[in-house]
């Protein structure tokens, strides 16, 4: 039920009619109904406690950061379509793709959503391209951000192929190229929108004859968007922070000697992390590595803005620089070459529970060396699960 449904229900419940006395009664009922909704919101809040993410006060915290292309278009249906078309084209131009890529994307969006940024669809499909969070296209909020969704269509996301991953996409029929990305049960429908989208593009001031590259300029499509390589700092993973990125060897279990006062014990925290990883993971953890570690131990928030900064707020006596023998339950830190850095919970036996490393937004259990071998990050060290600013 959206806000419009609520208001329609409110008007119906109030029994609004045209005549004097009945109108007053309807208005009173409407007020009572809305006050009731407000009280329900107070006593049964829908949101859950948020913890500090990898970049708690910066862009991209939690879900996709609001920007010009994340703001819903306004106006008539046609005006909205023109706005979204321009944003789709802007995403193509950003990575130097030709106008043909824009046309394919417009035809796709017209078929999938009538070129509207829908917040619902078949199963969990949302957005212009009806991409599904459960299939690794991003969180709902990310997919509802037009620049993110369009970039996903062009470049792919997670294990999903994008247009530029399709060999010969620039030479095959337009509708066929769209189908290669969307994998629709109705593959022939995309091509029917070519004429309409060419006219709409002209009205939107889009040059579909624009040249460009068949591969995205300045993009490494083999690297998924993660908490550490999108708007999280001035450099990208691949630089390996300040010390390069070759793996430093296996991680082995050290002995736990600390006594801490977290809401969850180490054993319970590890069990919770395992339960909420892999198939049990939600898609809510994009760029929220510090949030995850705090919540694992039962806190509502970590109280620190950046994951890499958490290492410095832990007392120096608790920091184990570059030590590769963390006890199970320890917090591990990496310098990714970005402002935020990365943090994960060590589960023992060389494994960690971490967001984004395998699937953007999800928690998976992986080898602790994966951050060095996959992201080329520099391992900083580990600390006990100490959250001096948490609450």
Topology as a string of helices (H) and strands (E): HHHHHHHHHHHEEEEEHE
How would you describe the shape? Answer: elongated
Q: How much β-strand is present in the residues?
A: 5-15%
**Could you tell me the mean pLDDT?**
78
How many β-strands, per DSSP? 6
Low-confidence stretches: 1-21, 37-69, 218-247
Largest sheet: 6 strands, antiparallel
Which structural class do you get from the secondary structure elements? alpha+beta
Supply Rg: 24 Å
| First-residue to last-residue Cα separation | 33 Å
What percent of the residues sit in helical stretches (DSSP H or I)? 25-40%
Number of helical stretches of at least 4 residues = 12
Strands across the major sheet, in which order? 1-6-2-3-4-5
Describe the structure.
Strand 4 (351-355) and strand 5 form a beta hairpin. This protein has 12 helices and 6 strands. It has helices at 3-14, 20-43, 77-94, 99-113, 140-143, 146-155, 174-182, 194-203, 266-275, 289-296, 307-313, 370-373, and strands at 320-321, 331-335, 342-348, 351-355, 363-367, 378-383. It is α+β, with helices and mostly antiparallel strands and 391 residues long. The protein has a 6-stranded antiparallel beta sheet.
Give me a quick take on this structure.
The protein is of the alpha+beta class and 391 residues long.
């Amino acid at each position: 039920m959206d806000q419009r449904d609520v208001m329609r229900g409110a008007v119906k419940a109030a029994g609004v009619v045209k005549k004097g006395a009945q109108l007053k009664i309807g208005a009173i009922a409407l007020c009572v109904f809305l006050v009731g909704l407000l009280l329900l919101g107070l006593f049964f809040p829908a949101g859950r406690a948020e913890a500090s993410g990898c970049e708690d006060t910066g862009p991209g915290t939690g879900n996709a950061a609001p920007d010009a292309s994340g703001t819903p278009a306004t106006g008539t249906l046609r005006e909205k379509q023109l706005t979204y078309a321009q944003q789709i084209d802007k995403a193509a131009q950003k990575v130097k793709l030709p106008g043909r890529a824009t046309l394919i994307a417009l035809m796709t969006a017209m078929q999938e959503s009538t070129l509207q940024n829908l917040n619902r669809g078949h199963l969990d499909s949302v957005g212009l391209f009806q991409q599904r969070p459960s299939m690794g296209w991003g969180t709902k909020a990310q997919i509802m951000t037009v620049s993110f969704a369009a970039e996903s269509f062009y470049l792919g996301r997670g294990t999903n192929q994008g247009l530029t991953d399709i060999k010969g996409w620039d030479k095959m029929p337009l509708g066929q190229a769209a189908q290669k990305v969307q994998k629709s049960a109705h593959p022939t429908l995309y091509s029917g929108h070519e004429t309409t989208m060419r006219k709409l593009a002209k009205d939107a001031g889009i040059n579909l004859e624009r040249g460009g590259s068949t591969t995205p300029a300045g993009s490494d499509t083999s690297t998924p968007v993660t908490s550490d390589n999108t708007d999280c700092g001035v450099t990208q993973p691949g630089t390996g922070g300040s010390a390069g990125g070759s793996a430093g060897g296996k991680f082995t279990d050290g002995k736990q000697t600390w006594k801490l006062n977290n809401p969850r014990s180490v054993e319970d925290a590890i069990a919770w992390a395992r339960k909420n990883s892999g198939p049990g993971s939600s898609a809510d953890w994009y760029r929220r590595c510090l949030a995850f570690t705090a919540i694992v131990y039962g806190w509502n928030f970590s109280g620190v803005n950046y994951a890499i900064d958490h290492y410095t707020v832990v007392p120096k006596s608790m920091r184990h620089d570059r030590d590769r023998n963390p006890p199970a339950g320890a917090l591990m830190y990496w310098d990714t070459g970005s402002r935020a850095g990365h943090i994960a919970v060590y589960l023992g036996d060389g494994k960690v529970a971490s967001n984004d490393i395998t699937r953007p937004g999800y928690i998976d259990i992986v080898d602790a060396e994966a951050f060095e071998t996959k992201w080329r990050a520099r391992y900083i060290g580990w600390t006990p699960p100490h959250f001096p600013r948490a609450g």
